[in-house]
Write a structure and sequence with these properties.
alpha+beta; single chain; carbohydrate binding; EGF-like domain; about 550 residues; Laminin; 6 helices
Length: about 550
Amino acid sequence: MLRLCLALVAAAQLGRSAPAPPPPPAGAQCIEHVCFGVFWGRQRFPDAGRLCQAGGGQLMTVRSTVEESAIALLVRNRSDARLWIGLQLPAGQACSDPARPLRGFRWVTGDERTDYTAWRPGGPVCGSQCVSVAAQELTWEEKRCDSEADGFLCEYNYTGTCPKLSPGAGLAVTYTTPFGAQDSDLLVLPPQTTASAPALGVELVCQEHSSGGMRWSSASPGAWHCQLENGGCEASCQWDHGTPHCTCPQGKRLDQDQRSCSSLCADAPCDHHCVLLHMNFTCMCHEGYELAEDGISCRDIDDCQTKPDLCDQVCINTDGGFRCQCHPGYELVEDKCEDVIDCYEEKCHHQCVDVPGGYKCSCFSGYAPSPQDPNKCVLFCNQPECPADCDPHTQDTCYCPDGFVLDHHNGSAKMCVDIDECEQGYCEQLCTNKPGSYTCQCWEGYSLHKKHSCISDDEFSGGTDSYPTTAAPTRVPPKPDSLHPGVLIGISIGILSTILVLMAILYHLMKKHFPGHGAMDYKCSNKTEKEVVLQQVPPGCPSATQKL
């Protein structure tokens, strides 16, 4: 049953006639790349829009006085008519807005852009959704979309047009536009317009040419009648035994349509340029290139190799040219490399001297470049003692070079004295002291290992005899008056405690080695005979009871 229903529906659709094409316009006007057509017959706004779309257009937009003039030409014989134009309130908007140029209406293109309005004075401003134009006054009036107007105006837009043909005297040409207009008075014709000249048996069509733009063309190649548009020939149209054909000037040839002309170089395989010479071509290259052996390709010329003096310092070859550069420390100024004044950037700690291609740092007297950063300066002394670097304002803060210590016992002059690292046992075997450093060496048969220690040559191979060593940086000892009071009290208490402990030990030793005879004599020499001695008599003393 389902298949039967589908078959009946398909049969009904096949039997239904195709929709009728839109009627031809009663008149047409084409201006540049746009054409307008007028259609008579009472239609509602939606139906008029569908008929315009069926012909490849839309209801007319009237944005300037140019369109107004086109309407005036199209409706000049129907002054009492009203026709739909493409202006309508958006869906869902029930009322227009008189304060806006288009009163809130929009063109069928969906925008409100316009340089022209022609609203009828005193007309309704609310309740109607569509707009018609009066043929006599060319004024706009709001109108119900479901009501009928006397006709409508369509607009057709194209990317280009063909000019009207220039036939010979007495030769008639009829044009038929793609939207159905048949008129011989149009000055420009849209694409796909056919031009018919029955007297010559020629039918042409306006279409885009391969070289660009719109041209009249024939379905078959070759020239048509030379009396109509020069036979379509780009150059000249000539008759040969009653048959027209096109010819091209010297240096050009006919294209495939046998009407257009193109240069002999059009299809030449030249990499860069093609030059015509005596009905033939030759290839040439841009500046900076040379023609290869095949006579077609172009290859780059290494300008830096062929012209060694192109640049002041460095030449870099590029595709078709070259580029000049400078060595570090120079900059390119008017094709010349000039030395950059680096010392303006204050890169040095003390002194900066510009040298070709860069700069050089130097230090003040008593300083030397730092081993870690040659741009920095550190204190330096190559004698056993040197003046310290002190704050010139307070003389409280002084600095010494590495390997030196500040001497506080040298009067008012603050001096830095070399540290004798050899006395402090820095080296395992032999040591040589130097100002600010020292050198470790080994006895014969031994080699220096890890800068300080020595190992037997049997255990070590490839070592060095000595390593110059710089002592660790020395901090300046603090001044006594700069110590905290609590620290001073603690030191004093410690010293006093030490003295008391030493005195106690000394007393104990003396008592141990020298017995107390004085005490015994005193106790034995007591001549108070009446005193009863109750204490125990020390050994060696006479008993007290004997004297009683």
